[in-house]
Amino acid sequence: MSTTEFEIEGLRTDEDLRAVMNAIQDLPCISHSEVDVATGRATIEHTDMLSEGEIRAAVEEAGFNTR
Predict the structure, then answer these.
(1) pTM for the complete prediction?
(2) CA 36 to chain centre
(3) Pairwise CA distance, residues 58 & 16, whole Å
């Protein structure tokens, strides 16, 4: 199991959080994910079949920048 951590820019509301969580949870091979609206910090546990780039791409498709 791998853990990927990064920051998401522009999270301000519960609606933003739902959009990001839906994007992440729609990906295959996710076992656990947490996103903190206050800090923008995302922590995602996933199998090695999913890359960090794929996770970031899903968040960016939902309309948020990652760093």
Answers:
(1) 0.94
(2) 10
(3) 14
